[in-house]
Write a structure and sequence with these properties.
single chain, mainly alpha, 3 helices, elongated
């Protein structure tokens, strides 16, 4: 149980930094499509790194990517909520 927590916590941290790295590219976070694109690119980056590291060692299996998918979904929902909040603040004049 504790090992699963550590894997999930690590996935959240790695997903956050991958998202931040992808945001360094000139993609704006103005539309939901761009937010989704950022998170898909971040997941592709993570998946490529995991596969490149584990496949040559013969220890890769697809379920190892599940915590990263969960983390990307969380960060996508977080970014979408922040975007919605910022839009509401702008329209309220604050």
């Amino acid at each position: 149980m504790l090992t699963t927590f550590y894997h999930l916590a690590g996935a959240f941290i790695v997903a956050y930094f991958a998202r931040t790295l992808v945001l360094a590219f000139p993609l704006s976070m103005r539309s939901t499509r761009n937010i989704a694109t950022v998170h898909l690119l971040a997941f592709a980056l993570i998946a490529a790194a995991v596969i490149a590291i584990r496949l040559p060692l013969g220890v890769f299996s697809a379920p190892q990517l599940l915590p990263y998918i969960a983390a990307q979904i969380f960060w996508f929902l977080f970014d979408a909520a922040v975007k919605k909040t910022m839009r509401a603040r702008r329209s309220a004049g604050g």
